[in-house]
Amino acid sequence: QVQLVESGGGLVQAGDSLRLSCAPSGRAFRWSVMGWFRQAPGKEREFVAAINWNGDSTSYANSMKGRFTISRDNAKNTVYLQMNNLQPEDTAVYYCAARATLYSGTTYSEGAYEYWGQGTQVTVSS
């Protein structure tokens, strides 16, 4: 059974940076699209960023553009989310998602992703 494992979350102050990582445990696939989502307390889970299979196409939610950067290392089967200038409204559980079957671009649709991590907490204090 493949599981995605996120790491790198924590408690930071406003203006700080964090880098989240996500790698599979167990059997590893060659992922096509990979993405990050987040869920704040009392809110629906929302799209953060996605990256296509070879890393040459990315997409972001509007509120993250310019502050967050998604990247991947296919040799390590790992996806990263660099988060800069974090603000209290970025406080959420961040989830990694991946798709093993063929997908040509990026997507913000949760239904397109086949595997999910358990999430890592990011808390930003003011």
How would you explain this protein's 3D organization?
With 126 residues, the chain is an all-beta fold. Helices cover 0% and strands 47% of the residues. It has no helices and eleven strands. Strands 2, 4, 5, 6, 9, 10 and 11 form a seven-stranded mixed sheet that branches. Strands 1-3-8-7 form a four-stranded antiparallel sheet, with no helix packed on it. Strand 5 (46-51) and strand 6 (58-60) form a beta hairpin.
Report the mean per-residue pLDDT as an integer. Answer: 94
| Shape annotation | globular
Encode the helix/strand succession as letters: EEEEEEEEEEE
Helix content: under 10%
Beta-strand residue percentage: over 45%
Distance between the termini: 40 Å
Give me the secondary-structure category: mainly beta
In short:
The chain is mainly beta.
Task: Summarize the SSE layout with pairings.
Layout: E1 3-7, E2 10-13, E3 18-25, E4 34-39, E5 46-51, E6 58-60, E7 68-73, E8 78-83, E9 92-98, E10 115-116, E11 120-125
Parallel strand pairs: 2-11
Antiparallel strand pairs: 1-3, 3-8, 4-5, 4-9, 5-6, 7-8, 9-10, 9-11
Can you give keywords for this protein?
single chain; 126 residues; mainly beta; four-stranded antiparallel β-sheet; 0% helix; globular
